[in-house]
Write a structure and sequence with these properties.
This protein has helices spanning 16-26, 66-82, 111-122, 151-161, 176-186, 229-240, 257-264, 295-307, and strands at residues 7-11, 33-37, 43-47, 55-59, 87-92, 126-130, 145-148, 166-170, 189-197, 204-210, 217-224, 245-252, 270-274, 289-292. With 316 residues, the protein is α/β, with parallel strands linked by helices. The chain has two domains: 7-149 and 295-315, 3-Layer(aba) Sandwich (Rossmann fold); 151-292, Rossmann fold (3-Layer(aba) Sandwich). The strands form three sheets. The chain has a seven-stranded mixed sheet with strand order 10-9-8-11-12-13-14, sandwiched between helices. Strands 1-4-5-6-7 form a five-stranded parallel sheet, with helices on both faces.
Length: 316
């Protein structure tokens, strides 16, 4: 690996553990900075290292408290720009407001686009992210966006379990493509849940199941889990159809307060997620969990961006 004398990595307060793991993978120190709030809740940032003309990467998933973490990232970008950084890459493992990617109701915003505008205006030269909720969010930017995916990592994990009769289950039609990719990697069939979401109360109901799961080891895959309601409804549906076991996997463990109680009391064999963001609201007591690290994936992508290599080649 080349000398990193011309690269610098910094972290806000969202997930310093992940940032440290990325730097450990790259065998370099995490940059020194101050990021805090004054008593009036205004965010202050000071970069303590010289970054003039350096390739700067700012690692900050937009996690709860979402608006504070977003402001931290924007102000970090501005601070780096005013410190004469050569290039600024916003490393956003979890892109909040990604569910608001279109006008699906009258008189509503497209907040995902607004966040993209914020990042550009703040001074980001490019964005590195992971499994956006909607692929079209890449098109909200006028700067380069590299979208990584953790689904191959999840696929490898399930391959290692040597399940006797696996079947991958998509939680809705919108997630069918990603679920199909996982199914192809595992060489198994795909099932799809037909669900209905009403209003803006974060509630969804699994109505029917397209596919046969009786005596199968079911693998539910999704990009993120918030309240756990959709998953619990899906698990109940599959158990009722004779599923032998049910595994639940997601890339982004957004997990609200409610999710810990819901998933702890759902008949799941194992819950698998990555460390794209920290578990802000609690921990699990009953359900068997497994956490996969994306540090090496982010680190390899950062190295390729810095050296002009192909990020896409990571997934060939």
């Amino acid at each position: 690996m080349q000398s990193f004398s011309d690269i610098a990595i910094f972290s806000g307060n969202a997930h310093q553990e992940l940032a440290s793991a990325v730097c450990k993978h790259l065998e370099m120190p995490l940059g020194e900075s101050e990021v805090f709030q004054f008593s009036n809740e205004e965010v202050f940032v000071r970069i303590l290292d010289n970054i003039r003309e350096k390739d700067v990467f700012l690692i900050q998933p937009i996690v709860s408290p979402v608006n504070t973490r977003l402001m931290e990232l924007l102000i970090m970008i501005d601070a780096a720009k005013r410190a004469s950084a050569g290039r600024i890459t916003a490393v956003v493992p979890y892109y909040a407001y990604g569910r608001s990617d279109k006008k699906d109701q009258p008189r509503v915003p497209i907040s995902g686009r607004l966040v993209a505008n914020f990042l550009e205006v703040a001074g980001a030269d490019r964005v590195l992210t992971l499994d956006l909720h909607a692929g079209q969010i890449q098109g909200f930017f006028n700067i380069p966006v590299d979208e990584l995916t953790a689904f191959p990592m999840l696929s490898d994990y399930f391959r290692g379990l040597n399940l006797e009769k696996p079947i991958v289950v998509a939680t809705d039609v919108g997630g069918a493509k990603r679920a199909r990719d996982v199914a192809e990697r595992l060489g198994c069939d795909l099932a799809i849940i037909d669900k209905r979401r009403t209003g803006n109360d974060e509630q969804a109901e699994a109505l029917s199941l397209i596919g046969e799961v009786e005596n199968h080891d079911c693998i539910i895959v999704d990009d993120e889990i918030l309240t756990g309601g959709t998953v619990a409804s899906a698990v109940d549906l599959m158990r009722g159809r004779g599923a032998r076991s049910v595994y639940v996997a997601c890339v982004h463990p957004v997990f609200s307060n409610k999710a810990f109680d819901v998933l702890d009391n759902t008949n799941i064999d194992q819950l698998i997620f990555t460390d794209s963001l920290p578990l802000v609201f609690g921990s699990f007591n009953n359900v068997n969990t497994s956490k996969l690290s994306i540090a090496s994936l982010l680190g390899d992508a950062i190295h390729r961006i810095h050296t002009g290599g192909s990020v896409g080649a990571l997934f060939r």
